[in-house]
Amino acid sequence: MKTPIRIAIGIMLAHSVWVAVQADTPNPSVTASAPINQFKLPNIAHAVAKPLPQVSVQPETQVDALIKSVANPINYGEPGVSYGAAGKNAAAAEVLTESASSPDAIADAAAAQEIATPADLGTSGQPYTTSRTSSQGLIAGRSYPFSAAGKLVFTVPSNPGYIYLCSAALIKPGVIVTAAHCVAEFGANQFYANWAFYPAVDGGKAAYGYTPAHQVFAPTSYLNGTDTCAVSGVVCQDDVAVIVLKSNVGKTHGYFSYAWNGYSFNTNGETQITQLGYPMALDKGVWQERTDSLGYTSTSLSNNTIIGSLQTGGSSGGPWVVNLGIQPVLNGTSFGQAPNPNVIVGVTSWGFNCTGIKQQGASPFTSNNIAPLVNEACSANPKAC
Fold it and tell me: Which CATH class is domain 11-384?
């Protein structure tokens, strides 16, 4: 597949660990972004999935990774977390549950839900399950926390005939997180253009429309190609970016928490991951898809987290969440360690060029990437946070 040409629309910030590009304010020293409506972005039905960066070398097995982690545990620093909120859609989710509480309605919803065989796996041997997040007729995909994830579309200024698709998720009222390779070209200091976020796309319908980007932040190391990568430009430590939107849609749809430095990972470098995204090879990308797998840290692949996954192109930038869902009310027991719900600890970064392997990877969220990116985005745009 040919690699599209990207035109730079950003400038480096001196003494910074990130690069910012203003999506709507032309800078005389760079190529300005074209008006977003010029490329008819609302027609997402014709969006082309951003090819998932691929590698041919598999990570060490989970057993080997565990042996390494026990002998040489990774220490990023003190784990941290920033908390999300349910937003106005939480009430809609409660009403939805009540209206479908009859035994017949529940049975019908269970029968309608298309779920992969439990413990599905590829040649990697790493188990996972895959299903739509929406039970047909119940529009669960529009209820928190699923409503806080959505499609991210963008263009390449030199090739305006195409709209490209990634996935993303809200982590502040007006800020989303995605993969760096969904906003910029690795090592070339070149950005894409005209990003727009469609929250809670369900059944191919963008019921809540879209919100264009206002400002984009990506790590300097990714932009200039100095990032530590096991596979250059693909399996890296900092394939993460944040985008400030022009409106605070998270107040309605809710937004995820996010954490860094190994939050929720045990001493063996493992945690349970739920991956959300819009892969084009699953239901043609019209439904939000969910994959659940035990994730483990691969020290041989730039400390990336590895999960079993069926997802493909279009899932790039989708959130990797721990403790997904609405927490139950406990009676006679207590939560374990790191119980905070709906915490993003990575985003979909890459997969293998042999789809039979059924594994994907994500750069770790650390105090050197996600934390300063959000801090800078919020400092420049406090009302979005």
Answer: mainly beta
